[in-house]
Amino acid sequence: MSDSQEVRAGVVTSYKDAPNRTVAAGGVTFAYRDLGPRSGVPVIFFNHLAGVLDNWDPRVVDGFAARHRVITFDNRGVGASTGSTPRTIQEMAKDAVTFIRALGFDRVDIHGFSMGGMIAQVVVEREPQLVRKLILTGTGPAGGEGIKNVTRLSNLDTVRALFTLQDPKQFLFFTRTANGRRAGKEFLARLKERTRDRDKAIRLGAYRAQLKAIRRWGVQRPHDLSGISQPVLVANGEADRMVPTQNSVDLARRVQNGELVLYPDAGHGGIFQFHQEFVKTALEFLERK
């Protein structure tokens, strides 16, 4: 661990300094990082397609961790976590609950981004008493508009990235405007701030399994979300190509206590492009009585 000022009184306050930890449960050794104050309800971050621990924007994690305990983790078969990657969102949700219970928590807040937001919806449906508040970003409901096309878009933009020597997330997460291009470059630079003890990259087989899970989610019959009574903050860019923004509007409308934030000239990674605004809104939401 770094001996920088970002570690105060034994509490890690910066994501780049958070040590890699593991916990064994359900036949899986889960890799995770844990930072922020030890009191209060922890916020568990559920990751996106192909995302490992190092794919979380440190500005978002650090912003949350300034006032809340934050835990990020690799689901089964992803990054440094062991096991075989599930091919359904429902199985991923079961693993997420197993991980949360293994850490001894019986009440958590969840921030689910993209695929992580799909997993979070299943967790709150199956284990309503476990979840206090829910933040869903860049995501959509089962059977949502255009979700079944994520595989095609991901493959297309991966090829575009190879031909232009860029990271696929520059195309998948951000608009092609001047603002979007600049925000993408800044985001990708932030992901490199951690220089040691980095996570393992996702394996091709795990990535393909996740794509299958997302496609299955996209062609499912819509779930009845009216039973979700927890406060839900939904956020996205106004021009999301991966999980079309209309899905965010739909989510916020269908839950009992939903509120919606859309960021201008922003795509799938709107919460990273507008990380300062998003963190401020999320903290106010989490701390509201």
Give a description of the structure.
The model is unreliable at 1-5 (pLDDT under 50). Strands 3-4-6-5-7-8-9-10 form an eight-stranded mixed β-sheet, with helices on both faces. Strands 1-2 form a two-stranded antiparallel ribbon. The longest helix is centred in the C-terminal third of the chain and has 16 residues, at 204-219. It has ten helices and ten strands. 38% of the residues lie in helices and 18% in strands. The protein has one domain (7-287): Rossmann fold. It has helices at residues 58-65, 89-102, 115-126, 150-164, 168-172, 178-190, 204-219, 246-254, 270-273, 275-287; strands spanning 7-8, 11-12, 21-25, 28-35, 43-46, 70-73, 108-113, 131-137, 231-237, 257-263.
Query: Kindly state the mean pLDDT as a whole number?
Result: 94
Rg from C-alpha positions? 17 Å
In the CATH hierarchy, what is the architecture at level 2? 3-Layer(aba) Sandwich
Structural class: alpha/beta
Shape from CA axes? Answer: globular
Please state how the strands of the largest beta sheet are arranged side by side: 3-4-6-5-7-8-9-10
Into which percent range does the helicity of residues fall? 25-40%
Highest CATH level, the class:
Alpha Beta
Query: Could you name the CATH homologous superfamily?
Result: Alpha/Beta hydrolase fold, catalytic domain
By oligomeric state, this entry counts as single chain
Into which percentage range does the β-strand content fall? Answer: 15-25%
Write the CATH fold name: Rossmann fold
What is the distance, rounded to the nearest whole angstrom, between the alpha carbons of the first and last residues? 35 Å
| Count of all domains | 1
Low-confidence stretches are 1-5
Largest pleated sheet = 8 strands, mixed
Order of helices and strands: EEEEEHEHEHEHHHHEHEHH
The number of helical elements comes to 10
Domain AB hydrolase-1: 42-272
Keywords: Hydrolase
Organism: Streptomyces diastatochromogenes
GO molecular function, one term: hydrolase activity
